[in-house]
Amino acid sequence: MTRTLPRASTRSLRPISAAITRLQPHRLYHETPHSRASVETARSLNPTDPFASLPPAWSGPPTTNLKGIRPRLDVTKRVFNPSYYTAIAEIMKLRSKYITNRSIFVEGSDMVPLLLGLGATRADLDALQRVSNNLYSDPTLPFRRSRNGRFCFDFSTRSVRRLEFQPFALSVEEDFKRHDSGQIRVFDEVQDELQLNTAFQALLVFKGMICHGVQTTHRPRLDYSSDKWVCTLFNLRTVTTPSILGEPALEGVHTDGVDHTMTTYLGSKNMDLAANSAVTFMHDMNEETGAKYTEIKPQNLRSRVQHRHFLDTLLLVDTENKHSLSPVLPLDETKEATRDMLIFFTRRPVKKGDGGHISENIDSFRPHEELPMEVPLFLPGAIYGKDE
């Protein structure tokens, strides 16, 4: 028998701060002299060089004011380790499947050797499972605890780095239909315990390797000539209690307003996996935005997956796949059930001066001064600098 719990009332939402004081005019990162030099060096690499697929020698992040913090994951130091090449080969196979199928699901048991091969440590894999214990209340969803952070995949410097704080917004025009659509939301920020975790950094490198150069349907008002991508990272805990139902996708059928979405499972407590708890459904783009997972048309259903084990990871082309999720259902209905995830939203920058995109004024590429982080990327040389 299907179990039902009361849905969250939107009246109990945490008020959003009206004082967004950090949105000040600034010089973009790529306008700095140091950055221009890095870009020119990267572009001068000979694309026919068989070693051009390797990142340049890494001398630390090009950002300044790092306060002594250095990156902990460096793929350039793995080039003489056989496990590194094994991981690269397997990731390239997954990338080929992604290009063909427009989505892939990688089981956690397969993700572990990939992340270790890229340089993650087993201690950080263990720590990653506990990081969601330090989340705060969500700005608009009472059944969720959250943090977020912004990162830049920069294919000119061949690195991924932390960006300064900005609020977050998704709109109906981006196929996101919920009570808080179009609202400027302010989340608590991801801290060093996550961003300096080598397993997390390896997940960033993994996503960059899979998505770089993959041709996708374009979204309006995004700059597809840019060599930078914005990655908004969410660390989320969805909570179901005896009095409230936790819904990972309260909005129903939707897209995330980006080019590529990646979701990685960190763990759960008291969640009834056998009862189709938190199942992800992927739909044809003809499916109605906002429809509940119980209302979807069978002819529009492409596939379904369920994150069940640590590091189970789904990656999909967001411009070509709508998706929805079922609620988090508890094993013991008298106790709290939780589901912890990392969500990586990655898109091209918003076109400046174009007008109309909800994120135009909250799309900074300035590095984060208080929480700096930057690690080198591996880029497949055969596709460097061009789409596939």
Largest sheet: 9 strands, antiparallel
Q: Could you name the CATH topology? A: Jelly Rolls
Rg value: 20 Å
* Helix-strand sequence: HHEHHEEEHHEEEEEEEE
Mean model confidence by pLDDT: 83
Tell me the overall shape: globular
Q: Please mark out the parts with pLDDT under 50 across 5 or more consecutive residues, or reply none.
A: 1-71, 382-388
What is the CATH top level name? Mainly Beta
SS-based class: alpha+beta
Total domains: 1
Number of helices: 6
Oligomer: single chain
CATH homologous superfamily classification: q2cbj1_9rhob like domain
Termini separation: 48 Å
Protein name: 2OG-Fe dioxygenase-domain-containing protein
GO molecular function, one term: dioxygenase activity
Organism: Neurospora crassa (strain ATCC 24698 / 74-OR23-1A / CBS 708.71 / DSM 1257 / FGSC 987)
Give a quick rundown of the structure.
The protein is α+β, with helices and mostly antiparallel strands and 388 residues long. The protein is built from six helices and twelve strands.
Question: What this model shows, in words?
Answer:
- This protein has helices spanning 33-43, 82-101, 108-118, 122-128, 192-195, 198-211, and strands spanning 103-106, 136-137, 144-154, 159-163, 228-240, 260-269, 279-283, 301-306, 313-317, 322-325, 337-347, 374-376.
- It is α+β, with helices and mostly antiparallel strands and 388 residues long.
- It has one domain (75-376): Jelly Rolls, CATH 2.60.120.620.
- The strands form 2 sheets. Strands 1, 2, 3, 4, 5, 6, 9, 11 and 12 form a 9-stranded antiparallel sheet that branches. Strands 8-7-10 form a 3-stranded antiparallel sheet, with no helix packed on it.
- The model is unreliable at 1-71 and 382-388 (pLDDT under 50).
